[in-house]
Amino acid sequence: MVFTSNPLSLSVPDPFFESWLRDNGYPEIIDQHTSTAITTSSAATADAASITNGFFISLFSRIFTLFSLFIINPFSKLTNDDLAAQTPPWTTSFFGSSESYSFPLSVSQARMRVQENVKRYARNYATLFVLFFACSLYRMPLALVGLMSCLALWDVFKFCSERWGLDQYPIVRQCLIRVAQCVAAVILICSNVQMAIFCALTVSYAGMILHAGFRKLTSAKQTPRGRSK
Question: How far apart are CA 11 and CA 27, in angstroms?
């Protein structure tokens, strides 16, 4: 890959310049140049090879890239600061326009997009998980009843602990906590709450991977509209 849009790329070796872009928060430049370089290379190959062979090579490459999305560790670069940051706007930043999406042309580009987008939109993905979990509970009323029963059980235990002064009897209090935990676990299992969590995790994880993989990297330091630089 050769970066020609920046004068520094003419004198700095590609790996070092790419590392500099990553460290200074410009992954969108790498993403853009990766797409341009692969598209140009594919066009040159198509002129030399037959159309049929080029079609099948492109098809298998896209299938392999698509499957590689689900073996990438999307949380490798996620930090506590990313979760504590403000939630990016849903319409302008998270969803964007139709031009904000493209098929990743290589495994390395897919990995970079997933890891960077998960860092940027971590709070959006967490919100979607909560939404999917609420939908799962709505579709599984028994799980909702079981979850509410467990919450009520712990509220009753807390009330009784304060009323009866169980803090003065730590052994008795620990025994009652273990009994309450066993009862809560039985209620959760019998009401299939674990299935609701599993469904929410599966749908939200698949949606996160697909969105992060197809979402183009954009500058994290965009100038707000209506304001001059």
Answer: 20
Q: Quote the pTM value.
A: 0.74
Decide if 64 contacts 104 (C-beta within 8 A).
no
Buried b (16+ CB within 10 A) or exposed e, 170-187: eeebeebeeebeeebeeb
Residues shown for the chain = 229
The burial class, CB within 10 Å (0-12 / 13-18 / 19+), for 123 is middle
- Structure token digits, residue 51: 């159309």
Question: Alpha helices, DSSP H only, in the chain?
Answer: 14-23, 27-48, 51-68, 80-84, 107-120, 122-139, 141-164, 170-190, 193-214
**Residue 50 has what DSSP assignment?**
-
Q: How do residues 10-45 score in pLDDT, each as one tens digit?
A: 444 465 555 655 555 566 666 665 656 555 555 555
